[in-house]
# Entry
Amino acid sequence: MLSSLIRRLTRALLWFVAGSIVLVVVFRWLPPPGTALMVERKVQSWFSGEPIDLQREWQPWEHIADDLKIAVIAGEDQKFASHWGFDVPAIQAAFANNERGGKLRGASTLTQQVAKNLFLWSGRSWFRKGLEAWFTGLMELLWSKERILEVYLNSAEWGPGVFGAQAAAQYHFGVDASRLSRQQASQLAAVLPSPIKWNAGRPSAYVASRASWISRQISQLGGDSYLMQLEAGQRF
# Structure
C-alpha cells in the first residue's frame, strides 16, 4: 500500500509540474482570461451576499501609459529589473522585523505578486508560499520582464471588483489606460498595498503624499530610458 501511495503521489507531482509549465508557457503568449484572485473575490461575494461586478479589460503593453509601468515599479519593486523573482535582502529584513514583533510586513516582488494573483489563493501558509516560489521561478525563467509587468498591470486589483489598468483608469479617472497622466499613474501605484481600503481617485493625505514620492521616483529611475532597457531585456 505504501509503495502504491508513493507511486500515485509521484505521478500527481509530475502531472502538476508538467501542467504548471505548460500553463506558464501558454500565458507567455496569450492573455490570461482571468485570475485566481478574481475567482476568490467572486466566491467571497456569494458567501457574503454582497454582489460584485468584476471589471477587467486586457490591454497590450503598448496601450498602457509608460508612467504607470514605471510607477508600479517605483512603488512596489524598485529592484524589479535586476532580481530573478526574489528580493533576498528585503525578505531577510521583513523576516527579521516580523521576528522582533514589529508590524507584519511582506517583501513580495512584482513577479511573486503575479504568481499569487494569477495562479493561487490568498493566505500565508508555507505550502502556498512554496507554490508561489515555484510559479515565480517559472515566470522569471520563461517570461521576459516586459511580459511579467504586462500581466501584472492587467491583473492587479485597484478597487472592489476592479482589475487591471484599463478598468482602474476608467473607474477612478474616466480615461483609458493609455491616457493616464503621471499624477494619475502615481496615485494608482500608491494604493496598491491596500487597493480596497484606499481610493486612487479620491486619495487620502497619506495616499497623496505617497503618490508624490512615487512621481519623484519615476524620474530618479530614469523614466523612458528605464523602460527602453527593460523592453530590450536588460537586467540592471
Notes: The first helix runs from residue 2 to 29.
